[in-house]
Specification:
Blueprint lengths: L2 E5 L4 H12 L3 E6 L18 E4 L5 H11 L3 E4 L6 H6 L1 H22 L4 E7 L22 H20 L2 E7 L2 E2 L8 H13 L6 E3 L5 E2 L2 E2 H13 L5 E4 L5 E2 H11 L8 E3 L17 H7 L7 H21 L6 H7 L1
Parallel strand pairs: 1-2, 1-4, 2-3, 4-5, 5-6, 6-11, 7-10, 8-13
Antiparallel strand pairs: 9-12
Helix pairs in contact: 1-7, 2-4, 4-5, 6-8, 6-10, 8-10
The structure holds NADP nicotinamide-adenine-dinucleotide phosphate and guanosine-5'-diphosphate.
Guanosine-5'-diphosphate binds next to helix 6.
């Protein structure tokens, strides 16, 4: 039975990847940091089938202990501070988690399990002020946020450990990917959750920032399959993972409101306070290398993805509306 270790297992991608690997017959270990509250809601359906281990990307000793103890065949480093605006509020901490954290886990592998295959969750935010469109593996980086800068460090240290120590280390340069498990602060989920609340009469207004920004939005379930395929490849390599199709935030708004038969213009308010200090105007992937070498193709397209998210949020909002005390801590925070 192959063994996988997932950091960031409690997050959107970590939970999808754990589902995927369990289906493939893996033994799954998840590294989770201690929280005063329950942060395992996304794992509710599989909690008994995986093993959670206490660790933190800030704590080198915990990483080495977990790697030595589990001796994984594959390690997926999905942990990190993943929300761009928060990276301006906490730039140093973002660097600790999202940049140096990658070196810490790679060091733990080098010392404790050097044969493990390693996946690093890199980001299209590294392209930032894009130098060419669409973006491919060779496109120069120009990050526009402390998050993007930290991810660029993580990308290059992954390549460096491959070149220096022969570790089977891969960097997946992932474009935005979403789904019903996405955090409520990200624009896709913020919109689909608000649409559901407006539809059932719990809210009337949705405040957003820059509606003209364009992203290449895919489905998280498709992306975890790409992570796994990278680690099954003959050679460690870096791959752009995205759909190749770009939409504006306004397109996303229209698609979500249309799905429930509402006119977005009656509800959306543009709030300049939600604009970013430096924006990434447009991202569009060129995923041809992943298609050619890994046989990877996304299966869920944009309108289907947004429709799925609105439907799930309608179910959630209706269920929680009947029992408000069942809202998650994050939802109480965002909704209030
Ligand atoms: P997410 O939902 O925010 O999950 C992040 C995970 O990291 C959570 O499990 C979180 O744990 C954990 N974490 C944060 N700091 C940690 C620390 N110091 N030690 C241990 N764990 C820590 O993010 P996601 O959407 O699943 O994304 C997964 C990875 O892919 C992230 O690195 C993200 O930056 C990257 N990425 C995502 C996208 C995207 O569109 N989703 C695109 C490109 C790259 P808690 O539950 O305790 O907070
Ligand atoms: P990101 O691409 O990783 O930063 O993912 P987000 O979902 O946080 O943001 C995607 C785009 O939506 C960015 O260009 C934001 O400026 C834009 N956007 C517009 N309004 C909002 C908002 O209210 N919240 C968020 N998170 N993003 C917004």
């Amino acid at each position: 039975m192959p063994t996988a270790l997932i950091t960031g297992v409690t997050g959107q991608d970590g939970s999808h990847l754990a589902d995927f690997l369990l289906d493939k017959g893996y033994r799954v270990f998840g590294l989770a940091r201690r929280s005063s509250g329950d942060n395992t809601q996304r794992l509710a359906n599989i909690r008994e089938h995986i093993t959670l281990l206490d660790g933190d990307l800030l704590d080198q000793a915990s990483l080495l202990r977990i790697v030595e103890q589990t001796q994984p065949d594959e390690v997926y480093n999905l942990a990190g501070m993943s929300f761009v605006p928060a990276s301006w509020q906490q730039p140093v901490l973002t660097g600790e988690f999202t940049a140096l954290g990658v070196t810490r886990i790679l060091e733990a592998l080098r010392q404790g399990c050097p044969t493990a295959r390693f996946f690093q969750a890199s980001s299209s935010e590294m392209f930032g002020k894009v130098r060419e469109s669409p973006q491919r593996e060779t496109t120069p980086l120009h990050p526009r946020s402390p998050y993007g800068v930290a991810k660029s460090y993580g990308h290059f240290i992954t390549i460096n450990y491959r070149e220096s120590f022969g570790i089977f280390a891969c960097s997946g340069i992932m474009f935005n990917h979403e789904g019903p498990r996405r955090g409520l602060e990200f624009v896709s989920r913020k919109i689909t959750h608000a649409v559901a609340r407006i539809k059932v009469g719990l809210a009337d207004e949705l405040r957003l920032g820059n509606l003209q920004a364009r992203r290449d939005w895919g489905y998280a379930g498709d992306f975890v399959r790409a992570m796994w395929l990278m680690l099954q490849h003959d050679e460690p390599d870096d791959f752009v993972i995205g759909t190749g199709v770009t939409h504006s935030v306004q397109d996303l708004v229209e698609t979500a409101f249309d799905h429930v038969g509402l006119d977005w213009r009656e509800h959306v308010v543009v709030d300049p306070a939600l604009y970013r200090p430096a924006e990434v105007d447009v991202l569009q992937a060129d995923p041809s290398k992943a298609r050619r070498l890994l046989g990877w193709q996304p299966q869920v397209e944009f309108a289907e993805l947004i429709g799925m998210m609105v439907e799930e949020d309608l179910n959630l909002v209706e269920a929680r509306n009947q029992k408000p005390e069942n809202r998650s801590a994050q939802e109480r925070h965002v909704v209030s």
